[in-house]
Amino acid sequence: MPLKIQTPLILVNFKTYLEATGRKAVELAKTAERVSRETQVSICVAPQFTDIAAVAEEVEIPVFAQHIDPIEPGSHTGYVLADAVKEVGAVGTLINHSERQLRLSDIDAAIKIARGKGLVSVVCANNQSISAAVAALKPDMVAVEPPELIGTGVSVSKAQPEVVTATVRLVRKVNPTVTILCGAGISNGEDVAAALKLGTQGVLVASAVVKAKDPYRVLLEFAEKAKTNI
Amino acid sequence: MPLKIQTPLILVNFKTYLEATGRKAVELAKTAERVSRETQVSICVAPQFTDIAAVAEEVEIPVFAQHIDPIEPGSHTGYVLADAVKEVGAVGTLINHSERQLRLSDIDAAIKIARGKGLVSVVCANNQSISAAVAALKPDMVAVEPPELIGTGVSVSKAQPEVVTATVRLVRKVNPTVTILCGAGISNGEDVAAALKLGTQGVLVASAVVKAKDPYRVLLEFAEKAKTNI
Amino acid sequence: MPLKIQTPLILVNFKTYLEATGRKAVELAKTAERVSRETQVSICVAPQFTDIAAVAEEVEIPVFAQHIDPIEPGSHTGYVLADAVKEVGAVGTLINHSERQLRLSDIDAAIKIARGKGLVSVVCANNQSISAAVAALKPDMVAVEPPELIGTGVSVSKAQPEVVTATVRLVRKVNPTVTILCGAGISNGEDVAAALKLGTQGVLVASAVVKAKDPYRVLLEFAEKAKTNI
Amino acid sequence: MPLKIQTPLILVNFKTYLEATGRKAVELAKTAERVSRETQVSICVAPQFTDIAAVAEEVEIPVFAQHIDPIEPGSHTGYVLADAVKEVGAVGTLINHSERQLRLSDIDAAIKIARGKGLVSVVCANNQSISAAVAALKPDMVAVEPPELIGTGVSVSKAQPEVVTATVRLVRKVNPTVTILCGAGISNGEDVAAALKLGTQGVLVASAVVKAKDPYRVLLEFAEKAKTNI
Predict the structure, then answer these.
(1) Mind telling me how many Å the CA of C175 is from chain D's nearest CA?
(2) Complex ipTM, two decimals?
(3) For chain C, is the Cβ count within 10 Å smaller at the N or the C terminus?
(4) pTM for the whole structure
């Protein structure tokens, strides 16, 4: 029986890292599945489009696309169709990752298409006001990336708590029910613990897991910290 | 043993048609493979990213991506990595399809990346001057789409021959060795015959095959006409 | 003394219509100024970038840019700098017009730059959820364009009132103080009256004025209806 | 009588530098005009859109836009119309500057629109293959930017001659009559001399002039070196 998406949630973005491409994507997804089974913490993976099918075939943890285009079936050569990612086994999708930013109307359209197809939408937002705007579009989840934590090397557990709590408060005001993930500043278990204590319900991580020497060990630490800090 | 890419060539673009998504992509690819075996004419298919793996697993005809992004492995969430499409079995890629047009420098970069990875590059160009410009970038193939034939309902066999021959001449002047496909105006076998007679070495088709009631019959007609009009 | 921006507001977008390019942009702006003086209703104009200087030189009504790029001074060849539009006399700018849509993070950045330079920001939003999202970014004004009114020929005065009031309500919930303009469905004076009655504080118009045989007469009707329907 | 565009040509791109915005754009253009008159070398300026009118009003040297959009008059809010830049006095335009890159089909369309309106088109190309591709589109001029010279601090006079001559040769092969400018690596008079000796017919410069303490002195040196190295 496939494992469910539930909070606290760890969502691992494979990006276009070679360490998580092709057969290595399947291997990493299996590691994530193993940790998820052992800890009973929900871990999801977001491999590249080309790897979704094999990953979804091989593991029972939830698989996400990294992006969908705001299109319906038809003449859209080279674009990513929600129906197609769903048919090969994805149950959700990232939208508007900071590396794949979309026009506002396309974010809105992609969320609506995801909703229509039964795909869980996780929309990324890289500052406070954008987080609030995104929350107004009613996605299933918002992954907030406080600018103080993006690419600065500052981790959540070391940052001023206000950096995260202010964003959480703003998002909650606009949308009381959306699930909030912390999408930046997660390097170790302490950061996962801090992110949850500060009001988010999970984390969106990438290199900390994918580039780790021992992804199993890192994910295990993340999951255990998540379990004890809900 | 996998079938080779050779001219005359029929390249079938699956676009994001539901009729060629998921399991239906595999079915259609099998039909193309059957015709290719029966006629010994080279037929290639370009399914959606998510379907490349399954299609390449199930058939021995060459499989193309519909697009690659001009990126190297790394932090490029939601983009299409050449290494990834190659690892799941693609041997080539469309670039700059009229529905997925790129900046000039990105076309150039994508061609170079494809070359570096050993992927066959088929660059689309939707008028004469653009065809010449694209030829200067030295891709493996150029798919020319004379504007008189795009979405006008006019087919190659009915159009003034000059519509195609003028483009072929211009492309040849800039790049004597590039393979030229006719990328518009192909509805039936007569059009395939006309395209080859006018100097192209193959056709890029989509709806005429994908949306056909009997894709087998259509492809068979295309392949037979291709065989007798080299 | 320059005329002020105040509600009810009529904002005339000159687009790239030849009828409002170059000397004709100045003429149309003078017509708008004349109506504004005669009726004491605030009328603003948004000419093309190249015409802002001449228009701002010749009239005392407020002049808007049609777009600014989210950039600071520097190496941004071909982009539109807030400082530059301000120096030639613009006092505000449209952002994210449905014909010039931006990435969410660029809308956010453009609003912040406009605020920093003292330019009034009018952000366009072409449906309910986008209007709410935009309101969360705290621009000075939101121009809402209910999809039922865009390019359908249905005008505000003929549409179900709910089409406009639902959007106004949603925007107000997220941002109680933002000025709301009705940005679609305004063809005649009745539509201006309806838009104001339904809770907006002004209108964003284009072809109804620019393409009119007698823009003076049309603007006069708009202004008089605006005056009596606050 | 307005000064003509002739080779050797010095084209000064004002970018969005504050040192060349608004009144300062006019001042800098006057300095360029003074040097052009004194040396009889053709110097052109490319100010921001908002400053074209004032610059063209105040000087008689040729004025270029930094970009035009591939649009015809109509509903294109926030875009740059060729007719509009022409009406305020521009006689040419940059297209596809490395900071404002366009899709291939948009470069092609912009060149055709420029030609149709009688605007001189200067298309930028940031490596050899792109330079050849651009030359195939038949613009009036190509500004080549060898990657070895962009942002590396290496200037033309110090680089291997082959860096420039190889590109010139390739462009000439595709288009024997296009005017070729050297668009990178120009810091001082020696570089201007080297660029012309290596087969280009002029230079496209920006910061070396705009950011100079004494733009008059720098431009004078450039012009004198240009004069003696045709």
Answers:
(1) 26
(2) 0.96
(3) N
(4) 0.96
